[in-house]
Amino acid sequence: MPRVVQSNDSAVPAAPTPAAAPKPVRNLSGFNFSASAELFPSRGKHGRAQVRYRRFSTAAEAVKFVIEDVSPAAMLGAYLEVNEARFSLQEIHALYAHPAYPLKRAQKLDEARKAG
């Protein structure tokens, strides 16, 4: 059912709002997994459990922490910063799946990806 916008006396159907298309992930080849990294929380306080600011000695450790230890809901709006570049949750997932990722991936995550 379309939304209706009240305009003075008459009801006018509103234009449908397009679904937010996911942004394409930038080219991650050459990413330095050994560089230091910082994890920044989102600015909003919506009552859900949020990730707190953390520093990591390597970006690989930060990526592993985000993917394996933090719930996706806690990461909404948060980002990882490496060498002054910001990485969204979608890009962090791409870094975790990248062939150059140097750490061992969690077995549960690997099995879930193969199954579905």
Written account of the structure:
The protein has 116 residues and is α+β, with helices and mostly antiparallel strands. It has one domain. Mean pLDDT is 78; it is low at 112-116. Strand 5 (79-82) and strand 6 form a beta hairpin. The radius of gyration is 19 Å and the shape is globular. Helix 1 crosses helix 2. The chain has a four-stranded antiparallel beta sheet. A two-stranded antiparallel ribbon has the order 1-2. It has helices at residues 59-69, 89-97, 107-115; strands at residues 4-7, 10-13, 37-40, 54-56, 79-82, 85-87. The longest helix is centred in the middle third of the chain and has 11 residues, at 59-69. Helices cover 25% and strands 19% of the residues.
Please summarize what this structure is:
This protein is an alpha+beta fold. The protein has three helices and six strands, in the order ββββαββαα.
